[in-house]
């Protein structure tokens, strides 16, 4: 229990525990998938923030089947019209032709003769045109229920490709596919991979296994890492098949496109298709082949991307892999990611623990968030996905929690510190005490006992006892308060602190509670104490004049001053504790005040005040005051005689 209490009193330990709790909460939320949508949103923003890649020669061109063409030619396109389109793309020199239109059954009815629609009546045999060479790849879904297979004449060939459009739970496509395997062990390559390989084979670039990790696939010199269920911000994602993260590096609306009518009318410019991948697909609201991508949020006027555009992005990315023009997007291991999150939680906790002024706090907070975002942005530029949302939540949460803890703790400590001292503390002294509170409050939340050098001033009002016997209580309290208020204010005016009141007596300290650390400062305390005592004497003269005029009793003030070491610390229990000074210096000042207490005479003339100081105070005054040496005298409670001086005024 003692160790637990000690730990609870340590601000650093509690702040560390708060930081650990925030990290645990963020880590738990992430491990349960609660942050996945936020993390994918941040990932999308980072992808969009990168400048798009500018290609000298875009490898993909799109052939769009628009709504008006669907109305004209029907949907799906009949075999003959599809054959004509494929033949024309072959004649234009396409390196690969992707057909993003399902054709699992023949469609022979074209609604009349092709010549009637201005189309050639040659190259209308889809089977013959498609099998003339292997440049054409048709999309299939063999694992659907029911399956969507290839045309009968492409069964058993490698001219089929599965769609590589795996949307996440939020409906956004982030991942591409190289292949997946059927339960029977048959591998189905994606449409984009089939097209990319046909584009690359003229450059003698092929698919291979990584020599060091044979389970991974290499295209050219680039090994494509296999997507894992918990990569990046994902939680238990479907990682079936061989998936990878799409980079969408070419941006939105990245590929040149033409309509099917342009193709039929031979209106596509010479060279626009030659040596490129040509993708034929639908661009029509009636055929819902649209997907959300990381760029959707940035293009509200056209948020969706066509399925064939996604195939184009995937094929283009694979080609850039092969040419070593792009790096696959990777992520850290789970252990490294959680270490990264913990590091930002610690930074946030430290920020909350050590924060100071408001503008510095704001500047440091903004700089910290900027550093995190900058690090994530820089990493994404290098194709590394590192967490942004969890460290942001953890860092801000730890900073907020430790700041709140510190504010509560400081409010308690401020009450403890300021409650220890007199209400007569000057604002600047109270502020200094608070700023140096660690010197006053120990690890057990109790004020520290300290040895300091101060000048102690003791004063007493002679005549109080007689007045108390002759005055009614209310008049007596008003009379004594007239005196106390004036004297206490003078102590504060000269840099002292009223330590205590005892009936008609005042105990004041100079060089307390903020101790003086140099001889010059100690001398200044002694000088101020004597000036304060002289001001008390002058005030006593004025008070007596006023009291006489009002028919009230008069009084005389005795002051004793001594400079030396004392102990500052706590007296009393928690409910009645007081921060005060004790020691021989304080006792000597009290003995000087009461020495020959009825003697108010001097070598000059009698007065209503008397100031006696010790030799230790006298040595700091440097002749600044007129004084009378009263010689050495034995004071009560002291073994050795004390040299006493009476202050008469300033020099």
Which terms would index this structure?
single chain; alpha/beta; 6-stranded parallel sheet; 19 helices; 25 strands; rod-shaped
Structure description:
The protein has 651 residues and is α/β, with parallel strands linked by helices. Strands 18, 19, 20, 21, 22, 23, 24 and 25 form an eight-stranded mixed beta sheet that branches. A six-stranded parallel beta sheet has the order 4-3-2-13-1-12, with helices on both faces. Strands 5, 6, 7 and 11 form a four-stranded antiparallel beta sheet that branches. β5 and β6 (173-181) form a beta hairpin. α7 crosses α9 (307-322), α10 runs parallel beside α12 (389-419) and α16 (473-493) packs antiparallel against α17. The radius of gyration is 46 Å and the shape is rod-shaped. It starts with a helix and ends with a strand. The mean pLDDT is 88.
As an assembly, this protein is single chain
The number of distinct helices, counting runs of at least 4 residues, comes to 19
Low-confidence stretches: none
Structural class: alpha/beta
* Structural Rg: 46 Å
Distance between the termini: 63 Å
**What is the overall shape?**
rod-shaped
Give the amount of beta strand, in percent.
Answer: 15-25%
Summarize the amount of helix as a percent range: 40-55%
Question: How do the helices and strands line up, and which of them pair or pack?
Answer:
Layout: H1 2-9, H2 11-31, H3 36-49, E1 60-66, H4 67-73, H5 79-91, E2 96-99, H6 126-131, E3 136-139, E4 160-161, E5 166-167, E6 173-181, E7 187-189, H7 191-200, E8 207-209, E9 217-219, E10 222-224, E11 242-245, E12 257-259, H8 260-264, E13 277-283, E14 290-292, E15 304-306, H9 307-322, E16 330-331, H10 334-354, H11 358-381, E17 384-385, H12 389-419, H13 427-435, H14 437-440, E18 450-462, H15 464-470, H16 473-493, E19 496-502, E20 505-510, H17 519-549, E21 556-571, E22 578-582, H18 584-594, E23 609-614, H19 615-618, E24 625-633, E25 642-650
Parallel strand pairs: 1-12, 1-13, 2-3, 2-13, 3-4, 16-17, 21-23
Antiparallel strand pairs: 5-6, 6-7, 6-11, 8-9, 9-10, 14-15, 18-20, 18-21, 19-20, 21-22, 23-25, 24-25
Helix pairs in contact: 2-10, 2-12, 7-9, 10-12, 16-17
């Amino acid at each position: 229990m003692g160790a637990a209490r000690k730990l609870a009193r340590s601000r650093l330990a509690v702040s560390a525990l708060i930081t650990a709790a925030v990290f645990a909460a963020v880590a738990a939320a992430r491990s349960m998938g609660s942050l996945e949508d936020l993390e994918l949103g941040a990932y999308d923003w980072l992808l969009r923030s990168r400048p798009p890649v500018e290609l000298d020669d875009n490898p993909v061109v799109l052939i769009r089947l628009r709504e008006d063409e669907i109305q004209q030619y029907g949907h799906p396109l009949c075999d003959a019209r599809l054959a004509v389109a494929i033949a024309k793309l072959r004649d234009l020199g396409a390196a690969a032709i992707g057909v993003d239109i399902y054709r699992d059954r023949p469609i022979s009815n074209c609604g009349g003769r092709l010549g009637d629609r201005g189309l050639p009546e040659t190259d209308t045999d889809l089977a013959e045109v498609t099998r003339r060479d292997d440049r054409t790849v048709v999309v299939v879904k063999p694992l659907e229920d029911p399956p969507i297979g290839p045309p009968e004449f492409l069964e058993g060939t490698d001219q089929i490709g599965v769609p590589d459009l795996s949307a996440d739970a939020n409906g956004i496509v982030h991942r591409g596919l190289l292949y997946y395997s059927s339960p029977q062990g048959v591998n189905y390559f994606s449409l984009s991979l089939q097209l990319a390989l046909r584009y690359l084979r003229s450059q003698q670039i092929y698919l291979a296994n990584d020599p060091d990790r044979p389970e991974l696939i290499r295209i050219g010199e680039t090994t494509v890492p296999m997507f894992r269920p918990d990569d990046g911000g994902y939680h238990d994602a479907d990682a079936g098949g061989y998936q990878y993260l799409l980079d969408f590096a070419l941006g939105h609306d990245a590929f040149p496109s033409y309509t099917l009518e342009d193709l039929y009318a031979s209106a596509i410019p010479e060279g626009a298709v030659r040596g490129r991948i040509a993708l034929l697909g639908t661009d029509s609201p009636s055929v819902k082949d649209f997907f959300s991508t990381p760029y959707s949020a940035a293009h509200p006027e056209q948020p969706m991307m066509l399925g064939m555009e996604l195939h184009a992005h995937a094929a283009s990315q694979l080609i850039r892999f092969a040419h070593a023009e792009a790096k696959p997007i990777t992520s850290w291991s789970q252990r490294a990611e959680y270490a990264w999150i913990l590091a930002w939680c610690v930074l946030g906790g430290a920020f909350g623990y050590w924060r100071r002024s408001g503008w510095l706090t704001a500047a440091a907070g903004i700089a910290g968030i900027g550093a995190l975002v900058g690090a994530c942005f820089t990493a994404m530029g290098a194709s590394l996905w590192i967490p942004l949302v969890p460290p942001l939540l953890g860092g801000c949460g730890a900073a907020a929690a430790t700041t709140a803890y510190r504010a509560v703790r400081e409010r308690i400590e401020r009450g403890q510190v300021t409650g220890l001292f007199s209400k007569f503390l000057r604002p600047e002294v109270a502020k200094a005490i608070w700023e140096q509170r660690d010197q006053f409050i120990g690890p057990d939340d109790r004020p520290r006992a300290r040895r300091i050098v101060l000048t102690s001033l003791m004063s007493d009002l002679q005549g109080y006892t007689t007045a108390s016997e002759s005055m009614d209580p209310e008049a007596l309290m008003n009379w004594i308060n007239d005196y106390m208020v004036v004297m206490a204010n003078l102590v504060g005016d000269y840099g002292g602190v009223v330590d205590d009141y005892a009936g008609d007596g005042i105990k004041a300290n100079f060089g307390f509670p903020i101790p003086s650390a140099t001889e010059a400062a100690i001398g200044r305390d002694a000088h101020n104490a004597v000036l304060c005592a002289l001001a008390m004497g002058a005030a006593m003269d004025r008070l007596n004049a006023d009291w006489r005029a009002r028919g009230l009793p008069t009084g005389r003030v005795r002051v004793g001053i001594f400079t030396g070491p004392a102990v500052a610390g706590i007296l009393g229990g928690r409910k009645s504790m007081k921060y005060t000074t004790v020691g021989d210096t304080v006792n000597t000042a009290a003995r000087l005040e009461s020495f020959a207490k009825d003697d108010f005479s001097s070598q000059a003339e009698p007065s209503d005040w008397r100031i006696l100081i010790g030799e230790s105070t006298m040595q700091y005054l440097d002749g600044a005051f007129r004084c009378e040496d009263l010689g050495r005298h034995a004071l009560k409670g002291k073994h050795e005689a004390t040299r006493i001086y009476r202050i008469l005024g300033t020099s």
